Amino acid sequence: MALGDRGRALGREASGFMAAGTFGVAVDVGLYNALVHLGEHGLLDDQPLLAKTISLVAGTSVAYVGNRFWTYRDRPRGSVAREYSLYMALSTVALVISLACLAFSRYVLDLRSPFADNVSANVIGLALGSLFRFLTYRRYVFPEQPAT
Predict the structure, then answer these.
(1) Residue 101 · residue 118 · CB < 8 Å
(2) Which 3 state secondary structure label does DSSP give 3?
(3) How far apart are CA 109 and CA 104, in angstroms?
(4) What is the per-residue pLDDT across 61-88, written as a single tens digit (0 to 9) for each?
(5) Which residues, at least 6 apart from 132, have a Cβ–Cβ distance to it below 8 Å?
(6) CB-side exposure of 42: number of CA atoms within 13 Å?
(7) Separation of alpha carbons 121 and 37, rounded Å
(8) What is the pLDDT of residues 6-35, one digit of tens each?
(9) 44 vs 34, 38, 108, CA distance in Å?
(10) pTM for this entry
(11) Cα–Cα distance between 51 and 61 in angstroms, integer?
(12) Which among 42, 114, 126, 135 could bridge 36 via Cys, Cβ 3.0 to 4.6 Å?
């Protein structure tokens, strides 16, 4: 594939990944804020790391569906169980990245506002985790079909 064609293909792949991820992020961020900050005291107000884990699993599941059936629809399909398991395993690493950012903000810097939580977990943690996901999903979960 020519360099220009490869660049365009990578750009389409990245934009599809971002679109699927946008829906996943909306679920993740919305659910996290509902669990921790909704009302006077959210359901998991005192357990932000558990809330982030729950919200990230839900958001990641939404993003998996978008990536499998849209972004990487032209890639060979493996078993859904294998793909989803690998997708979630790699997402666990991204979760640890996001939780580390949130924990640092909450427990080292003692920043506990909704703004601080969202910047640490849903901006910094999300950006770092998304880069990791993009690089690993395209290689291990949805690999290109080898040229024959």
Answers:
(1) no
(2) helix
(3) 6
(4) 999 999 998 888 888 887 888 888 999 9
(5) 90, 93, 94, 97
(6) 19
(7) 14
(8) 788 788 888 898 999 999 989 998 999 999
(9) 9, 10, 20
(10) 0.72
(11) 16
(12) 42
